[in-house]
Amino acid sequence: MEAREAALKVLYNIEAEKAYSNIALNKTFKANEFTKLDRNFITELVYGTLENLIFVDYVIQQFSTMKLKKMNLWTLNLLRLGTYQIFFLDKVPDFAAVNESVNLSKIYCKRASGFINGILRNMIRNKENIELPNKEKEFKKFLSVKYSHPQWMVERFLEYFPKDFTEELLRVNNETPKLHIRVNTLKVSVEEVVRFLQEKDIQVNRNPYISEAITVEEGFSQLEELDIYIKGLIHIQDFSSMLVAKILDPKEGQFIIDVCSAPGGKTTHMAQLMNNKGRILARDIHEHKLKLIKSNANRLGVKMIDVEKFNGKDLDEDLIETADKVLVDAPCSGLGIIRRKPEIKYRKEPDDMKTITELQLLILTNASRYVKREGELLYSTCTIDPNENQKIVERFLKQHSNYELIDINHFYKSIVPGEHKGNMIQLYPHLHGTDGFFIAKLKKK
Ligand SMILES: C[S@@+](CC[C@H](N)C(=O)[O-])C[C@H]1O[C@@H](n2cnc3c(N)ncnc32)[C@H](O)[C@@H]1O
To answer: Active site located where (predicted)?
Structure first.
């Protein structure tokens, strides 16, 4: 299969079957033999089109009398692929973008070939004349179209953040994030992994603050296929996620409960910091995700984890005041990881946000009961919405005078450059170069 055809199929799946971009891409790569160059091109086409979808659709609509909603999904996605290449990929000549889309239409939506050809050619002729909504008069709409975020989301961000901050955040949300690797020091030294990656022409940098973290600067393809990944010498995890286990700081021999633990990134990191000694109870509500925790633990050689299906909405009376430390890495809107999963922008609805905050507070409240006196509770999310973050912690503290907030910024200031406020940690992609991420640590009196 040719690269553009693969990208088309992935985009179609993401839309028609609500597949996740990273999972859909991985499936395609596993099922077909592609060169490294083709893989990179397919990834660029899929992510680029998704990141810029509202802009791309806006442009298509300027040239089509038919509403986009009425179009057949193959036709629409072929137009999107063509438009993305015309506007964003300088290395692809415009005529190639048109010809390839038209050729593919002959396979996937034969009757629309002329329609696609006409729209894309007209688009090329008028490429310089596209008018965005007026920035002064329609600021929210302008941001929504220019940076491809739904307008309700833009409005939400503008409620929380200043205008310039919001614009920069939206812009950076469309950039490709760097990959971070956690070296599994249970099995190997950081130096050995760095040497291995350099030998494979993968440019990496050691993180000056988290000794087991490595940033991939350039040259990666599929890290999951590397020998060192398969053998469990590394795990792929954003720097912000690695902060969680570092800040919770579990010690050898302790009992830790991780109430929302799949696929086990932070659980296995904690086990690593505990030198595989002690016990971690790793729970999640989804049965199928428990397998992921187990397979990650097996791969990484972690032996101290008990995996269990449990709904964090329920209170487990047997665990009350048993744990030294409890982690609540809560389900959230994911607004901090739009760079990794651009489809999040288009799948969330304003109403989703209300139900999620009640769930977060309930899970945190139940989890707090499991902490021993003098023990610690950590709450984290991968979102930048204050209602899911600072507000949850504030609401919790109002109802629990037996807990106090620990100032983790003294630690944080030295390890993540940028601007920080208050006792809790809030990271933003455009300020910190990490996922949008929140961490608060509480102590039981
Ligand atoms: C942010 S993810 C956790 C990521 C994980 N800590 C890691 O580092 O790999 C949130 C998890 O919460 C789980 N979850 C959602 N609702 C839950 C509930 N009511 N009780 C327990 N887990 C839940 C989801 O299945 C998801 O795996």
So the answer is: 382 (nucleophile)
* Check whether domain 179-236 has CATH 3.30.70.1170, yes or no: yes
Q: Is-catalytic flag, 332?
A: no
Which residue's CA is the nearest one to ligand 1's atom 5?
Answer: 261
Q: Is residue 178 within 6 Å of ligand 1 at its C-beta?
A: no
Polymer length in residues for the chain = 445
Distance CA 293, CA 283 (A): 9
Tell me, using a 6 A CB cutoff, whether residue 262 lines ligand 1.
yes
Euclidean distance between CA atoms 325 and 323, whole angstroms:
5
pLDDT score for 409: 80
Task: Say what the pLDDT of residue 415 is.
Answer: 65
Fold of 239-444: Rossmann fold (3.40.50)
Given a cut of 70, the residues of the chain with pLDDT beneath it are 219-221, 411-421
**Residue 241 alpha carbon, nearest atom of ligand 1:** 8
pTM of the predicted structure, to 2 decimals = 0.93
d(CA 210, CA 114): 56
What is the architecture of the domain spanning 3-129?
A: Orthogonal Bundle (1.10)
> Among 261, 288, 358, which residue has the most ligand 1 atoms within 8 Å of its CB, making it the best to mutate?
261
Q: Which two structure tokens, joined as six digits, stand for 61? A: 């609509």
Q: Exactly one of 327, 328, 382, 431 is catalytic; name it.
A: 382
Number of H helices, E strands in the chain: 20, 12
Residues at the annotated binding site for S-adenosyl-L-methionine? 260-266, 284, 329
pLDDT of residue 220: 63
